[in-house]
Amino acid sequence: MDKNSIVKLWHDFANDDLVTAKYLLNLYPLKLEIICYHCQQSAEKILKGFLIDKDIEPPRTHDLR
């Protein structure tokens, strides 16, 4: 897969999380923890796409420390 396709894929993943967060704003009672989680995920994914676009390999980690 070429770099532009990978960047677009990360952009699409980020957009999916943002769309989900916006949708969840209509819930009652409001679930801010879940909404914030999807916002954080969206930001992380768009940043990964940006780094890849700049030829910087983002670390693949899920550090539980």
Please outline the helices and strands:
Blueprint: H1 3-24, H2 32-53
Structural notes for this entry:
The structure is a single chain. The protein has 65 residues and is mainly α. It has one domain (3-53). The chain has helices spanning 3-24, 32-53. The model has no long low-confidence stretch (mean pLDDT 92).
Question: Notable features of this structure?
Answer:
65 residues; mainly alpha; 68% helix; elongated; 2 helices
Q: What's the number of helices?
A: 2
Mean pLDDT: 92
SSE order, as H and E? HH
Radius of gyration: 14 Å
Poorly predicted regions are: none
Beta-strand residue percentage: under 5%
Percentage of residues in helical conformation: 55-70%
Quick structural summary:
68% of the residues lie in helices and 0% in strands. It has 65 residues and is mainly alpha-helical.
